[in-house]
Amino acid sequence: MLIMSFMFCRGELRTENNWRYLKAEHLFRLLNEYDDRLPEEPPRNLAKATNPAIKHDDIEGWDCDLGTLLARFCERDYLIKEKVVSDEDHELGVSYAIGPRAVLEVGRLQILTFIHEASGQEISDELLFEIKGGEEAGEEDSGEEDNRAAM
Prior knowledge:
By secondary structure, the chain is an alpha+beta fold. The chain folds into 2 domains: 2-120, Orthogonal Bundle (Arc Repressor Mutant, subunit A), CATH 1.10.10; 122-151, no CATH class. The protein has 7 helices and 4 strands. The chain has a 4-stranded antiparallel beta sheet. Helix 1 packs across helix 2 (24-34) and helix 1 (2-10) packs across helix 5.
């Protein structure tokens, strides 16, 4: 949930599919800020291998390292991994987005709710508008309430 929250909060919104993508460098840095036992930088072979053999030290209590964990999330469609070439140095990198399985099983609204409950903030209408794909915020809820009241 934390990884998906970072993608949603810090990811770059792409209008062609309305998803937020977060570069691997940013994701690793954010996770390291959360827990300094996690590596601050992604392994160099993250973009080149389908199933990378990552050489980070194992994290206590985990059966694998962070790169392998991300690869598992991608294999199971919880995350989308996209190879990208940077404009500055033309180096191959990776960006991640929330995958289709995570959307089905968790949902973007639940991720947004998790973020706001953890921070003690209210969800803005602008974010609700983005989540619901352009529908008016609260539109679906009012219809459900009317249906329950009629029963």
